[in-house]
Amino acid sequence: MGNSHWAYKIADRLAMKHRGSKIVCASGISPSGPIHIGNLREVMTTELVYRALQQKGIDSEFIFSWDDFDKFRKIPIGSPKSLENSIGKPYSSIDDPFGEYESYAERFEVKFEESLSQLGINPRFIRQTEMYKSGEYDLQIKEILNKRSQIAEILARNMTQGMTEEQKKNYFPIVLYSRFTGKDNTKVLSYDGDSKLTYLCHDSGKKDTIDFTKDRVIKLPWKIDWPMRWVFESVNFEPGGADHASPGSSYDVSSQIVKEIFENSPPHFQEYQFVRIKGQAGKMSSSSGNVITPGELLNVYPPELIKFLYARCSPTAPLDIALDKDVIRAFAEFDSDVEGWEEGFRKLITEKTKSELSRSIPFRKIFGLGEATGYNLEIIKDLLRSEGGEFSDFSIEDRLKKSDYWSRTHFSEGRSELRDSPNTSHLSLMSADAREKIRSLEKKVLSQDGLTLDEIELEIYSIPKREGMSDQEKKIAQRSFFKDVYQLLFGKNNGPRLPTYFWSSKDKDRIRRLLG
Questions:
Q1: Residue 413 has what DSSP assignment?
Q2: 112 and 294 in contact (C-beta within 8 Å)?
């Protein structure tokens, strides 16, 4: 993958169409709840195209809009019920229910921006509340209000049921937040053709007149706000989810509005499919609570691997990300692919060199060493030095930390924790010969101090052997012996490499008690 990558192909099309002009790449998210890795595909698609443009030396910019002046529609699962009183208000005017941030919107904006920074993604952030309240869009709002009948016609022809003449006549293309309640449950009654609007607040039953150039309580609805900003920000590229791409959807209607109302062209649009957690059914949604945030993904995967997962898959294909045992496979695929990368692809996802990336310790190896040593970094470094490995210190430390977190949080079935009490049910099933082997283990290994790792390994593998056994019989006997040890210690049929585990363990008394 290199200059043939999908991001470079889009960059080439943009460069050809806008030859000699600055190319603006845009994306945006509404902070309705935790920003998840499905939302991240929006940003990642834009980032990869922007990076491709940069690699080609083309003047370009990546802007990201926080749609925090949108109205709050639904309380995300797990959020305080007190937020019910804020439904209908803009996200930016709602207090953070936990009192940690300036607003409900900022709670999610700050966390997402921090994750993007860790991923090496640094767009110019735009907060739409600030844009509307500063008056930046006043001229555009006035133009839209005065062309409301034309806009109504465009919307009507894209509706299955259309609009009646009465509905068209009374249509006002704005969201107006009541000065009495701060909510959008309002109806515009009249417009003076300049900057004054009279409205009815349904919640309070009161009428009010505002000057939108002074009273910053209105915004444009999405299908009109989007094309207005395309023109205002000179946007040339913006991706969108599959739900925005069908006929009559947001992009289709917004494209008609930008052409007919603003006499401009829509940006190049790239549809992207949804992101799913492997094994999890359905689309991720902040309101449903079934989300994984980029911050959580960064606890498991390094930034360059996350970018690799998004970059190697065409935006038009669904993307499944593993948090189960296939995390090991994802690391292995990343490590094995590095040498085959073209420079163009590498530069899309990381500033690290191939040499740096190729010195990463395999995730499976560091996970196994972590399990065997209780995630003791210094012991692991000593073991690796004795093997003559040339893995980078950073990869050892970073991947050990990530494997520890992953096995505690997402792969508990693969983590080996000593039992709190003896496994009496398994002991009762063991033969006298099997119990004798366990006693031999305790005597030859656990009761001896100062044994080297090699000596422990020799003893452990010799315990199940009997004179005259074939190689196959030895393997069967060893597997049976190891299974007994794992069951007695951890309550399962497998676990960490036993010689390393016993050599590095600081809790031999507890181990002896569990072995009976």
A1: G
A2: yes
Residue 331 lies in a domain: no
Query: Residue 470: which residues within 8 A CB-CB, separation 6 or more?
Result: none
Q: Do 108 and 157 belong to one domain? A: no
Which helix or strand (DSSP H or E) is residue 241 part of? Answer: strand 235-241
Host domain of residue 112: 6-136+221-320
Nearest to 218 by CA among 152, 104, 141, 151: 141
| Dihedral sign of CA atoms 123, 129, 130, 132 in order | positive
Pairing of strands 196-201, 186-191: antiparallel
Count structural domains, the chain. 3
In which residue are the tokens 């993307």 written? 319
pLDDT at 283: 63
Q: Please say whether the beta carbons of 317 and 419 come within 8 A.
A: no
Evaluate if residue 1 carries a pLDDT over 80: no
Sheet bearing 206-211, strands edge to edge:
186-191, 196-201, 206-211
d(CA 209, CA 200) in angstroms, rounded, equals 9
Report the pLDDT value the prediction gives residue 282, as an integer from 0 to 100: 59
Looking at the fold, whether 118 and 243 belong to one and the same domain comes out as yes
How far is Cα 90 from Cα 72, in angstroms, rounded to an integer?
6
Task: Kindly state whether residues 87 and 167 are assigned to the same domain.
Answer: no
Cα–Cα distance, 223 to 31 (Å, whole number): 18
Nearest to 30 by CA among 244, 191, 338: 244
Backbone angles phi, psi at 240, to 5 degrees: -160, 155
Beta bridge partners of 218: 176
Tell me, yes or no, whether 179 and 256 share the same domain: no
Query: Distances in Å between the alpha carbon of 470 and those of 209, 347, 463, 467, 480?
Result: 95, 54, 15, 9, 15
Residues 147 and 291 placed together within one structural domain of the fold: no
**Mean pLDDT, to the nearest integer, of 313-330?**
96
Distance of alpha carbon 308 from alpha carbon 132, whole angstroms: 37
Amino acid present at 260: E
The answer to whether residue 112 sits within a structural domain is yes
| CA–CA gap between residue 72 and residue 165 (Å, rounded) | 30
Q: Are residues 262 and 122 in the same domain?
A: yes
What are the pLDDT digits (tens) for 66-82? 999 999 999 988 889 99
Summarize pLDDT for 326-353 with one digit per residue, the tens: 999 999 999 999 988 999 999 999 999 9
